Amino acid sequence: MFFFEAACGCPGFVTWIANFAPGISYELYASAMAVDLKRMREVMERLMPLWTFTGEVCASHGPSTDVLAAPYYGEGDHMYVSVMKAAMDILGLCGGAPLLPLMPLTAEETSRLREVLLQTGLLRW
Fold first, then answer.
1. For 113-124, b where at least 16 C-beta lie within 10 A, e where not — what string?
2. Could you check whether the bond before residue 71 is cis, i.e. omega within 30 degrees of 0?
């Protein structure tokens, strides 16, 4: 995600998780800018359950209706937007429903996302 950009000396990056986890997004950025690879790895490992969950959701939805469909984006990869909006709602940030043609997460997926947010420490209750 950000390793390539940091290695090339980019002064910043864009990530969808900043919408609901700006602190950890900044932590990843700061560790990359300090070339603290150990800390970068720790942050990425902390987020691994979220990446894994998002990948599973993307794989279970599709085909992509993105303007830049496969091979530029994989089938269903657009569902990260639905994960982001559901995470915002769970955290009390008013993410709302994704706009069509995107679909919101199912009740089961939302429940699993709540567990993932607890597991990563982004949700504390």
1. beebbeebebbe
2. yes
In angstroms, rounded to a whole number, what is the distance separating the alpha carbons of residues 6 and 29?
Answer: 8
**CATH label, 3-120, candidates 3.20.20.70, 3.30.56.70, 3.40.50.300, 3.40.250.10:** 3.20.20.70
Q: What is the per-residue pLDDT across 6-57, written as a single tens digit (0 to 9) for each?
A: 656 677 777 889 999 999 989 988 888 888 889 989 998 999 999 999 989 9
The residues spanned by each domain of the chain are 3-120
Listed in sequence order, the residues at least 6 apart from 51 whose beta carbon sits closer than 8 Å to its beta carbon are: none
User: Which of 84, 117, 109, 114 lies closest to 98, judged by CA?
Assistant: 84
CA distance 123 to 120: 8
